[in-house]
Amino acid sequence: ATAFGPQAYHIMRASVLTVFLLDEQQGFRDRENTSIDDIKQWAAELKVAKVLEVDLSGSQFRCEGSVEYIRWVDGLFDIESSVDPQPHVDRAAEPPALYNVRIDTNENAFAPFVMNIFDDVVAMERVLKQHQQSGHTVRLLASYSRPWKTKGAAQPHALNGQDMDFHILTMNGEWWSKVWNYTPRGDYSLYVQARSGYPMYDDPLCEVGCPYTVRGFDFDYVGLLWMSDLVIRDGKWVVNPEHVFESGLTRTLGRVKRAGNHQGEDYLILLKCVQQYYRILMTRAIKGLYIWCEDEETREWLRQRSQQSTQQ
Asked: Which of 15, 70, 233, 304 shows the smallest number of beta carbons within 10 Å?
């Protein structure tokens, strides 16, 4: 103000432009900041002269730009797609076609996005390791479906398998064990960046990332552990509150557990939140998504849905 004078300073303040790149579909917690309405309210309080909202919903830059895949994911959960400007349709009756997705584990230059559903978690990890050896970035992800037993452990990777966060019995009768993302001093970037000097640098599949860790980040190939918090029963999604450990849903989860049934507004809110963070996890891959389901009925339903959509 001293250098330019009060009037010049006022003009400079008035010409400041602030840009928010916001995807409201990345939110799922009880208290989630920030929404478009929040920004508009703050702008009004600060007496901002003009707020311009630019809609980018017709564009798709995730998952190798596969609009069909994003529509398919949204159709799984009956979500109004961010890439589908058309009126809402009954996606349960007419699943969107996966024209731009190859439903197998083979590379294909004409199918930029690959998806496959595995019966065995070990087989899924084997394919991811092959991609890693080819120079691709790979990660394992899961919803908040396991308690964070290893939080605070100095060396969680050195624990016995049964003491790790994920301890899964494989098809050959052996145990497959992983820990949640290691975050000493709350540094979640260790999982995202896999920096030198930490376990993820040598083995990017030695940890499982949670929705909070990977919001806004993408990797070439992702292996999703689909656990028993969200399952299909009689063709409908069911959320199991006993398998939800998301601390950001404490209030909603508490009300659902006290009600003791799968009905009511709070249950529907919880269901929507869990579906939302599965949507986040399913859209973190750039080149391919691999899914292993803990629940057999859900696994087969997902497989049928993907096969049906490719036959349209």
From this structure: 15
